[in-house]
Amino acid sequence: IAACRMDECLRVYSEHPELLDMMGSVNLSETDNWSGYPEHLTSVQIQAGLKASVLLQGTLQIAPYNYLEGSIYTKFPDGKERRVLIVGRKDMNRAVQGDKIAVKLHPKSQWRKAPSAALVDEDEDAVPDISKADSAAPVVPDTSRKSSSAEVTGERAHKRARVSEQDGSAAATEDSQEPVNPSDVTDNDLADEGEPTGYVVGIVRRNWRSYCAFLDPNFASRGSRASSGPVTVSVLAMDRRIPKIKIRTRQLDVLAGQRFVVAIDSWPKESRYPQGHFVRALGDAGDKATETEVLLLEHDVPFQPFTKNVLSDLPLEGSSWLFDAERDQVSCGKRQDI
C-alpha cells in the first residue's frame, strides 16, 4: 500500500492552496535581535508556588486599547481581592486574553504609582516579518498604505499601542531587589507604593480560540512576488486584545483585502508572536454579509442551519401553520403554559 505524508498528498492539488495553508508550519527564525521570552514554569512548580503563597493566579484581562497591558483580579493570602498589573511584552510572557496564568510580583520599587503615557505605535516590526526561509517567495511591502489609512480599503486603522521598555522589561532584567511575597502585601503598601505589578511565570490554562483576522496592511495586495511559494506573514485579529499572529500562506494575493479565520497553534519562547494557521476565508472586507458573519463569530453567536432532528419537531404545515384553539387544547383548558 502506497503511503505519503498529508502535505505531500495536498501538494498534488495545486489549485487549492488553502488546503496546505491549513496545515500551518511557520518558520521560527527572527529577523532582529530578539532574545526570546523567559521559560514557563511547569504545572508542578506552579502548584507548589501557589500552595506556598509565592505565586498568584488569575484570568488575564487585556486592555481594549493596548494588547501589551493587562491585569488580573486575584485573592491575596490575607483574603482581599486586588488587581495586579502586567505591562510590557516580556512581562506578558506569551499570555493572551482569557488565559489563566500564574504571576509573580515585582519589587515595590516597580509598582505603578501613576498611569504611563509612554505609548508608541506597535507597527515598527511588521515589514521584517517575512523570514529568510521565505526568500524563495519574497514579498515587497507597500509602505504607501501605511502613510494613509484611507488607502487601506475596507480596513480600519489597526494601531497597536506598546508601553515603553522601561515599564515592561523588568521581568527580564536583573534587579537587586527580591520580588515581593504576596503574603507581605498590605493596604498600606498600596497606599505608599502604588498598584502592584507582576510578570507571568506560567500558563495554568490556555484560552485560545479561532480568530477573525485580516492581513497586516504592510503586506499590500499589489506587492510583487517572485513565485507562488509559501511565505510567512503577520495577520491582525479583529479583537484588538490579541497580538499579531504569524501564519504561513500560499495565497497572499487572495487574502489581501479579505476577512478570514485563523487559529493559534503554538507560541514558542523564541518567537515574538504566536504562530498559527489559516482556517477558512469569510469574504471581502466591507461586504455586509462578511462583516455580519465576523460579528457573529467574534461574539460566539450560533448561526448555523438547524439540524434535521430539530426541523422534524416543527409542525407538518410548515410556514402555513395557524393557531387552532381546539387542536392545541386551549379552549378545553387541558393545555398549561409554563
Keywords:
24% strand, extended, 5-stranded antiparallel sheet, 338 residues, alpha+beta, 3-stranded antiparallel sheet
Short description:
The chain has helices at residues 6-10, 17-21, 43-51, 89-92, 144-147, 165-168, 187-193, 252-255, 288-298, 308-311; strands spanning 56-59, 61-63, 66-75, 81-87, 100-105, 119-121, 161-163, 198-205, 210-215, 231-237, 245-249, 258-266, 275-284.
Write a structural description.
This protein is an alpha+beta fold and 338 residues long. It has ten helices and 13 strands. The protein has a five-stranded antiparallel beta sheet. Strand 2 (61-63) and strand 3 form a beta hairpin. The N and C termini lie far apart (62 Å).
Distance between the termini: 62 Å
The structure class reads: alpha+beta
The description of the largest β-sheet is: 5 strands, antiparallel
| Helix-residue proportion | 10-25%
Task: Calculate the mean pLDDT score and round it.
Answer: 77
- The secondary-structure element order is HHHEEEEHEEHEHHEEEEHEEHH
State the helix count. Answer: 10
Tell how many strands the DSSP assignment holds.
Answer: 13
Q: Please state how the strands of the largest beta sheet are arranged side by side.
A: 11-10-9-12-13
Give the low-confidence spans. Answer: 118-176, 220-224
Strand content range:
15-25%
* Rg: 25 Å
Topology of helices and strands:
Blueprint: H1 6-10, H2 17-21, H3 43-51, E1 56-59, E2 61-63, E3 66-75, E4 81-87, H4 89-92, E5 100-105, E6 119-121, H5 144-147, E7 161-163, H6 165-168, H7 187-193, E8 198-205, E9 210-215, E10 231-237, E11 245-249, H8 252-255, E12 258-266, E13 275-284, H9 288-298, H10 308-311
Antiparallel strand pairs: 1-5, 2-3, 3-4, 5-8, 6-7, 9-10, 9-12, 10-11, 12-13
